Amino acid sequence: MSSNSSDRIRTAAHWVCKEVYDLDNIVTKNNVLLNYAIALMEMAAADGILSEAERQWVIGFANATAPQEELDQLRNYQPKGMEGVLKTFHIESGHAHGEQGRLSLIYDGL
C-alpha cells in the first residue's frame, strides 16, 4: 500500500473518530479499526445469523477507514462469538480504545 493511501486512511479514521464520536486521542492503527468492524459483525450476528445486509453495512462503514486487505477479511469473516471481542474492548485490556470504544460500539451496533 502506498504512503499516500495509508495517510488518507489514517486521516479519514481520525476525522470519523472526532466528528462522529468526539474522540481526539483514539489510536487508529489498522488492527484497532479491524477489531471494531469485527465487533460490529459479532453484534449483528448475536441473533445467530449475520445477514448479507448486515455484513454489507459493516463493510460500507469500514470502507472509510480500512485498507483493502481488511475489507477482504471482513467479506470472508465468520462470526465466532463475543468473548474475544469483549476482551479487546474491556477497560483493563490495555488497548487505548478499550474505554473509549465501548459506547461508540454500542451506538454503531444498534
Task: Please write out the topology.
Layout: H1 3-21, H2 30-44, H3 52-62, H4 68-76, H5 83-88, H6 97-109
What does this structure look like?
By secondary structure, the chain is mostly helical. It has a single domain, classed as TerB-like (Orthogonal Bundle). It is built from six helices and no strands. The chain has helices at 3-21, 30-44, 52-62, 68-76, 83-88, 97-109. Helix 2 packs antiparallel against helix 3 (52-62).
Number of domains: 1
β-sheet strand percentage: under 5%
**Which structural category fits the helices and strands?**
mainly alpha
CATH class: Mainly Alpha
- Put simply, the count of helices is 6
What composes the largest sheet? Answer: none
Integer-rounded radius of gyration: 13 Å
Along the chain, the helix and strand elements come as HHHHHH
Strand runs, count: 0
Helix fraction by DSSP (H/I, runs of at least 4): 55-70%
CATH topology: TerB-like
Distance between the termini: 33 Å
The general outline is globular
Look at the structure and give the mean pLDDT: 77
Poorly predicted ranges (pLDDT <50, ≥5 residues)?
none
Looking at the overall shape, the CATH architecture is Orthogonal Bundle
CATH homologous superfamily caption: TerB-like
